[in-house]
Every structure is written in structure tokens, then in C-alpha cells.
Design goal:
Elements (H helix, E strand, L loop, with lengths): L1 E2 L9 H4 L4 E11 L2 E2 L1 H5 L10 H7 L3 E10 L3 E8 L4 E11 L2 E6 L1 E2 L17 H11 L1
Parallel strand pairs: 1-7
Antiparallel strand pairs: 2-4, 3-5, 4-8, 5-6, 6-7
Length: about 140
């Protein structure tokens, strides 16, 4: 799993093939993301009786989303639109590599979902569900 940048330093071509995206140094602040149709085809699940899109809209926004310089072969599960030309940024994506998957999460702020205010008690388990399925799947 890659989160907001390289998980290694230096020139490592044997690892570079794993990266679903090549990260930029810039990030966009206070961003919401939306699920793509591919998320519905995957095992991305946010729990509850409400639709995943509704849950995402009602949960706290991300602190930031990191811009992407280059996308490799990948499946985008969540995206954000930003800027005057509504540039789409892959927020949660993955690519198949060998017999498994490599996931990329390009946002800071998922942790906010772990500390829900009293008004959002129906979403208490969203954060745990997200990470449980990411680490198992």
C-alpha cells in the first residue's frame, strides 16, 4: 500500500513497477472525494443502510489530496475534482501486480473518520471497515 508518496527513497526500479501512481509534491487542501463506478464493482464498502455515495458525502472531508504526475495501469475507486478546469485526481486506486494488488491512497484525513462526533454515531464503524477490508483484500 502506498499512501501520499513513495514509501522508499532512491532509485529502486524493482519497486517502481509496483507504484499505481507517480506522486507530485503538491497537495490540495480540504477536499471531498466521490466513488467511481469501479468502486461499486469492487469490494469497497462503507457499511450502513445508506448508499456508499451518501456516506462519503456526509463524512468529514480530507485534509488534503496529493496531486498525481502520472497514472500507471490502475483502477480508480475514488476521485476528487479540483481546480478551475475540474481536474480529476485519483484518491483511492489500485493495480494488479503479480498475484496480488497494490493500493494507493492519496489523501490525508481518513483518520478523521475514526473520531466521529456524536451526531455521526451511525458512521462509527466506517473507518474500521475501510481498513479491515483493505488489509484483508
Amino acid at each position: 500500500m502506498f499512501a501520499r508518496g513513495k514509501s522508499y527513497s532512491g532509485d529502486r526500479p524493482e519497486i517502481a513497477g509496483l507504484e499505481p501512481v507517480i506522486w507530485d509534491a503538491q497537495a490540495i487542501k480540504d477536499v471531498r472525494f466521490e466513488l467511481t463506478p469501479k468502486a461499486g464493482e469492487s469490494d469497497l464498502y462503507f457499511g450502513g443502510a445508506r448508499s456508499p455515495d451518501t456516506v462519503i458525502r456526509e463524512l468529514p472531508s480530507m485534509v488534503s489530496v496529493t496531486k498525481i504526475l502520472k497514472r500507471n495501469a490502475l483502477v480508480i475507486l475514488a476521485k476528487s475534482k479540483t481546480g478551475t478546469n475540474a481536474q480529476e485526481i485519483a484518491v483511492i486506486s489500485y493495480q494488479r501486480y503479480g498475484k496480488g494488488k497494490v493500493m494507493s491512497i492519496g489523501s490525508a484525513g481518513l483518520w478523521r473518520w475514526a473520531f466521529m462526533p456524536e451526531d455521526f454515531k451511525q458512521y462509527d464503524e466506517v473507518y474500521q471497515l475501510f481498513w479491515r477490508q483493505r488489509c484483508a483484500g
